[in-house]
Amino acid sequence: MRKIIEIVGVLVLVTFFGSCQAKENSSDKGVKVALMADVHFHDVYGQLSDCDFPGVKHPETGQHMLVRTMKAQLNSTRLFNENYFAFRAALDDVVKRGIRYVAIPGDYSDDGQPVNVNGLKQLLDEYSKKHGIRFFVTTGNHDPVRPFTMAAGKKDFLGMGGKNQPIMSEEGLYQSKKDSEQPVVVSKDIAVWGYKEIMSTLANFGFSPQAADVYWETPYSHYAYNEYNFEKGRKASEYAQRQYVMKSVNAKIPDASYLVEPEDGLWFLAIDANAYAPKKSAATDPLNPRNYSGAGLGYSQVLAHKSHLVNWVKSVMERADKLGKKVVAFSHYPMVDFNDDASEHIEKLLGKKKMQLPRIPKNRVAEIFANAGVKVHFAGHMHINDTGVREFENGKSIVNVQVPSLAAYIPAYKVANISLKSMDVKTVMVDEVPDFKTIFPLYKMEHNYLKSIDDKGIWDESILSVANYHEFANWHLKELVRFRFFKKDWPKATKKVLMNSTGKELAALAGINNAKESWSKWTGYDMVVDLYRLRSADKLAIKDIGVERVKQYMLVIEQLLNSNALNVEKHVAKDLKEFGKVFKHFISGAPVMHFSVDLKSGAITDLNR
């Protein structure tokens, strides 16, 4: 049976079932797949191909490296440099576990720069050839940043003497500050590539079919499952064949979505959920990348600008059910609220645009994709570890698994063991990373320079004394809270109370007068830091916080929520109650460590108990 779907003026044939019994798979043998989101690969050993700048010279090894400053990454939601080593450590762990498939739900590069995309290709090729791993990638808002290649650069690479080293892809993009920065280096390898270049470079990792694949398609291919051959797939993978017309500007926009069956019975559904909202200027210059916004809002923009993907996803899931295929559905953006339903209280506490609230998908997104047949979806983007669940009156449900980032706290990835009836999902922490301290002597040079100029944003040198990568990522989060989140996002009066109150004083404020002296060892600020730990890592953070400390927090929170006479200003009392509600939501969400999903009923079973 065929259904003709009109996609923005272009007729595309999508075969729902067809005569496909010859390739039907009835086996229910489980298959393990590793999922690694938001790797943000930055090639610290990368070489700029069109200039003579070799990078900053390592003071101990003499080797030149292309790295960003510690100050820059401590003000960012992701690490820039150490994830190079963390990604290798995670892949080595995958090899030890005997896993042959790795799916990467977007943001696999720093910002789609040629030097980093080419470095990623070399790394994936290495593990493919040595260990037989198949990689399947999909796009994120950092790769590509815009639909077409765009001039860009970074002003915060680390230069000699500890100063910033700006590197730009074109002359005139940035003017160095003479006293505190090195002169600008110009290299096209720091531009941000668009779809055409990225899809071509990473073609072997899902964007194009391989000869051994059982099946491969895009939302725009025209053949039925039983009609497939490699040549048809190769033709359908061409850039010109993978574009849709954006009606508002009458422009062809590339789309990298694909479905691949690398072995009989296993489907990887890679949804390109990047949607670039056009600016008014796009109508007259549609090929100018700067005439489009970024894709960071995810599925709200998908439904507005490329909703035809929903029909394609629905057809894929219906055919998978008919043919008995195991489906790994993944994209960069979440389909379900990732805040353990605390978003309402976060907004009341911090405001509408804080804690990345604009990135929360509406319930409509979850309902649409649940109705399209998606049972479990793997996402990245948020650099957090979370499980979101939505159930609807018609019996449909969807589980959204937020895959944590290897470039943030807590560095981890997911392993899914999928059969036709259920999916087992486990979180694997990446605590030990060989060589992650390689760049530390360069950071010491940077710190000495910042100290010499009495820089107000100087970071805590103690971070260079950490024992392992887990501790390093923990320090990164703590400094991020200090420099950015708590400093910029929180109400002043409430911030003052939390900063100046010990745990014992907060307990007394809430009406607990018998708190032990040990409660004085922590402050309200410590509680805020731990709130961000829980948001990032969910229950994985409890080990770092401490079980006893969590118990104390919860006693204070319960008392705060039940008290009608807090001895603080009314608006501060209101904020503290919302703070308590957010904390409570974060610590009591759906299972994240190890759980299974019944693919028929959608029921989740916690396997970590």
Description of the structure:
This protein is 31% helix and 18% strand. It is of the alpha/beta class. It has a 7-stranded mixed sheet, with no helix packed on it. It has a 7-stranded mixed sheet with strand order 11-14-15-16-17-19-18. A 3-stranded mixed sheet has the order 8-9-10, with no helix packed on it. The two termini are 46 Å apart. The model is unreliable at 1-26 (pLDDT under 50).
Distance between the termini: 46 Å
Cα shape: globular
Please state the structural category.
alpha/beta
Strands of the widest sheet, in order across it, are: 7-6-3-20-21-22-23
* Average of per-residue pLDDT values: 92
Low-pLDDT residue intervals, each spanning 5 or more residues: 1-26
Please estimate the helix content: 25-40%
What radius of gyration results from the CA coordinates?
25 Å
> Percent of residues in beta strands?
15-25%
The count of β-strands is: 23
Number of helices: 17
Question: Quick one: biggest sheet?
Answer: 7 strands, mixed
SSE layout and pairing:
Elements: E1 2-7, E2 10-15, E3 31-35, E4 56-57, E5 64-65, H1 70-73, H2 83-96, E6 101-105, H3 114-131, E7 134-138, E8 153-158, E9 164-168, E10 185-186, H4 195-201, E11 215-217, H5 230-236, E12 243-246, E13 251-254, E14 258-263, E15 266-270, H6 299-305, H7 308-323, E16 326-330, H8 343-350, H9 363-371, E17 376-379, E18 386-391, E19 397-402, E20 412-418, E21 422-429, H10 440-452, H11 469-489, H12 492-499, H13 503-510, H14 524-537, H15 542-545, H16 547-562, H17 570-586, E22 594-598, E23 604-606
Parallel strand pairs: 3-6, 6-7, 9-10, 15-16, 16-17, 17-19
Antiparallel strand pairs: 1-2, 3-20, 4-5, 8-9, 11-14, 12-13, 14-15, 18-19, 20-21, 21-22, 22-23
Helix pairs in contact: 8-17, 11-14, 12-14, 13-16, 16-17
